[in-house]
Each structure stands twice: as structure tokens, then as C-alpha cells.
User: What shape does this take?
Amino acid sequence: MKERIIMSPKFTKTTSHYGGQPQGLAEPARSSLHPLVSVVTLTHNRPQELLRCVRSVAAQTGVLTQHIVVGDDCPVLADEGFMDDLRAVRADIVVHNEPRPPGFEAAYLSARLGRMRNIGISLSDGAFVAQLDDDNAYRPQHLSTLVDALERSPDAGVAHSWRRLVTNDGKEFVLVDEDPWWPVLEGRAARSESYDRLVRLGVFVPGSSVVRDVFKVDGELVARLDTNELLVRRETHDMVPFREEFSRARQKMQWTEDFTFAIDLARAGIDVVCTRQATVDYTMGGCSTNGEELRNTL
Assistant: This one.
């Protein structure tokens, strides 16, 4: 059965984004010197991680930023005390809390994440759009280096960085012998085989906490891109949104929304460039790396 790409309906910032009151309605500042980059963050009940995430976006240098938070029916976004803390970091933050529909527990997780990412994009204004999940953080130069990469490569539609793996307390995390993003159901042998392949491709370097993600190697599609690393031109997202439906075959293979997005970029003939800098602090132990808790996080 042929898959369809479905875009979420357009949301406008004149409507209520949470609890009957508009959030983040202030127009982001404009400057002819710096481009506006919109950052979309998905969250579910991780208040301290979300505050750290928002601080890292506010600390970006060389660009103007707009930050859109999309809650996955997120209880902390109903807490006025927490919202005051959030606005103290970013007064103009845009917040949308997406309700969970009946039966969501049985729905494919990556399809729901794709829908929420598309909602965030529809709420954004920037010429460029980035994603940052609530348990991760940018280094101060992350967005500016990505913008520079796209400005140097006007034919490219997407730029990406590398990521540095860290633990919940901020210590560097080094992978050992297994690819933690390989489907758990395929077993340790398959995870070890994937690790060895990615070592050969230079994505994993033994003893290093840096994951050197790559789109293609010598023209061959590898499609190792993480959403937290990406900066996408708006017109590219118009052509290639995140998938909101996945075939049963792709669900069985546990295809994620970011892997599928990379495949769709390749099919659309979109050029992708890399900064070759590890400017994302990527926390291990969250949604991507703990299958047992997938539905309890995002």
C-alpha cells in the first residue's frame, strides 16, 4: 500500500495554544544582520530538562531565535508556577499543548512525533527550522554554524551537526560495542553488527563520545541523521514534512520519524551538508534509547 504524507492543519498564533489563553504571541524581533531560526521542542512532563533546553536556545549566538514548545498532553504546562519559570527564561516563548486522542497508546509512536513536529513547524516564522527535544541542549554556536553551512551551500536544503553523548548528569557517555538506536527486537548480535558497520563508516569512533552522523558516504545513502542536529530551510519542509503515517512494514522495522525524514530527503533529491562539529549535547537514556519507556516519555 502506498504511503501518504499528511501535513497537520495550519495553526495560527491568534488562537489559544494552551488553556484558553494565547501563549507567546509577541512577534519575534527581526534584524537584517541575523536570520530568524525557529526551534521546535517536543515535551512531556520533564520540567527541569525543558528549562535547560530553553536556556540553551536562548543562549545561541549569531542568530535570532524563536522557540516553540509542543506539549504531548503535558501536565507541567498547566502549572502556572512552572510557566512563570519558563517565561522568566524566554518571555516570548510559544506554547501549544497537544491533547492525546483516545487510543493513542496503540498508535505508532513515530507517527505521533511526526505530527507534533509538523504542528511546531506550522506555528513557526523563521526562514530556518530546527528541532531540539526537551532532554537535549545546544552549545552556543550550534545554530549559527548550521546557518553558515547553508549560506555557503545555497543549493542545500538541510544542514546537520554532530552530537556529543552525555549522561543525565552531563558526563560524557561512550558507546561500547553496540548501536543503541538499532531496533531492540532484533537482538544484541544485530546491534553489534550495526555498531561495527558504523565504526567502519566513521560514525562511531571507539573511545569517543561524539557521534559523527552522516547522510551519505561516497554517494551511498546512510541516512544517519538525528532531528536534534538538523537545520531545515522552510521551503524544504514545505516539500518534505515529517511523516504522520507509517506502513505496517515500517512499523515492524521500527522506522523512526527522523530516519524516515532522511529517506524522504534523499528521494526528493535534497542536498544535505554537515558542519562536522559536535554542537548538540544528546542525553542518553531518554526516548530514543529506552524502548520500555518510549510511551512514558514522548
Observations:
- The helical segments are 47-58, 80-89, 109-122, 142-152, 187-201, 234-239, 248-252, 257-267.
